[in-house]
Each structure stands twice: as structure tokens, then as C-alpha cells.
């Protein structure tokens, strides 16, 4: 098989892997990406194609928490991309971001921060100061500081990411909502509840424009807003939001799905606080019934 034929074989495996990922078939995706790595290794082991396939396979392992398998693949991909495109390329920044995210997930924060910072510096130079990829990396770094309770740095970074996203797109995008939700969570942690509610409301508006009406992310945002109202003793608004969140989850999961149990129990608590003992008892009974059915 010639080198050209081997690269065509690589491309075929990468296309098949993407199709498998799109259909949610991760087992086939792993097999195709592994085959793509092998094909690139045989054709051109230091080529960008090799870097791409290694990065894709690493990202798959990373998504499933197989960090020990993912890290050496990311590391080799980074070496290849630095050789192929230079150390200041967007491709290198993307890999640095991926490795830093892995370090964040494994609580290796001190190693994650400089990688995020290097990725941001590269993206600023290579992509410009108002690029969506740059905003995504800034948001990732903000999460690290947020997790470490460095709220001032986290807030500044979240707001910078939001500013970039606002400049670069007039359309409602889920990523924009994600950053608003992160900011809202940080404001909630700081006890700045009114500001947190405002950020959640903005996120909810974007989600309602960019997602299906019964998307689980909308239910999650409603639940987070309800928690703040509940903490403030605003049971009426908390009930209204949890009621809608429950309706969304039921439409997706069915009325007897185990994932409904936390929502039902929380709803019962809020209803009881509001003096609606009858409805609270109904929610408790539903949760007990679902739990009994799966025990």
C-alpha cells in the first residue's frame, strides 16, 4: 500500500469515527480512531494527521474519565503539532486547552493554570482578541479559579469571555449560556443572589432560543434559579420554576424515571415549606414509588 493509499485509509477511519460519534456509538468510534492512529503511524508518524487522530482518541478517553489513557495521547499529539505547525499555532493552543482540562478534572490545578494561560496567549496572538475559541479557553481558566474560590479572578475571566462572545455573535448560542451559568453559580457562591438570578435569566433566554423547549439544560437552569429563590424564602417562584423543570424532565424521561427522584424530593420540600402539604405528600409518594420499582 502506498503512502497516499494509507492516508486515504486514515481519512476513511476518521470519517467513520465521526459518524459513530454523531450517532452516539462510542465503541465503534474508539475502534475507528484506533485504526486511524495505526494508519497514520504507518503512513507518516509525525504528520498532522497523526496528531489529529491522537487528539481525537485522547478526547474520547478524556470524556469517559479514562485520564491515564488520554494523557500520553494528548502529549504525543502536542509534540507532533508543535513540530508541524509551530509552538504558537492555534492547533497547539487547542491541545494545551485539552491537557489543561484533563489536569483540572484530576485536580492537578497547579499544572492546569499555566497551560491555560499559554493557550490564551497563543490564541490572542494567532486568532485575535475577540475570537470564540479564545473565549472558551478563558472560560475554562475561570472555572479553575472559581473551583479554587478565587472569585475575583474567576469573575473577571467569566465577564471577559462573555464580552468576547457578545462581540463575535449576534445569535443565541448554548456556549454563551454556559458562561452565564458559570458566572451565575459564582455569584450565588458569593451570596450575590440578585445578580445571580439576573445571570440565570439571561442564560435561560439564550437556551430557550437555541435549544429545544424540553431540553434538559433548560430544566437544570430552572432548578438552579429555584434553589436561590428557595434559599431566599421565595417559595412561590421556587415552586413555579421547579414545576416547569419537572414537566420538562417528565417529557424527556417519562413519569417514572429514576432520575426524577431528586427533583421530586426537592419539590416536596419546597411545597412543604410553602404550606402545600398535600402536594408535598404526592411528590414524596411518587419518589418512593419510583425507588421501590427499581429496588
Walk me through what this model shows.
The chain has 295 residues and is an all-alpha fold. It folds into 3 domains: 1-70, Methane Monooxygenase Hydroxylase, Chain G, domain 1 (Up-down Bundle); 86-200, Tetratricopeptide repeat domain (Serine Threonine Protein Phosphatase 5, Tetratricopeptide repeat), CATH 1.25.40; 212-295, Alpha Horseshoe (Serine Threonine Protein Phosphatase 5, Tetratricopeptide repeat). It is built from 14 helices and no strands. It has helices spanning 3-22, 26-43, 48-63, 67-85, 90-105, 109-127, 132-147, 151-168, 174-189, 193-210, 216-231, 235-253, 261-273, 277-294. α9 packs antiparallel against α10 (193-210). The protein is globular.
Features:
295 residues, mainly alpha, Methane Monooxygenase Hydroxylase, Chain G, domain 1, Serine Threonine Protein Phosphatase 5, Tetratricopeptide repeat, 0% strand
List the helices and strands and how they pair.
Layout: H1 3-22, H2 26-43, H3 48-63, H4 67-85, H5 90-105, H6 109-127, H7 132-147, H8 151-168, H9 174-189, H10 193-210, H11 216-231, H12 235-253, H13 261-273, H14 277-294
Helix pairs in contact: 1-2, 2-3, 3-4, 4-5, 5-6, 6-7, 7-8, 7-9, 8-9, 9-10, 10-11, 11-12, 12-13, 13-14
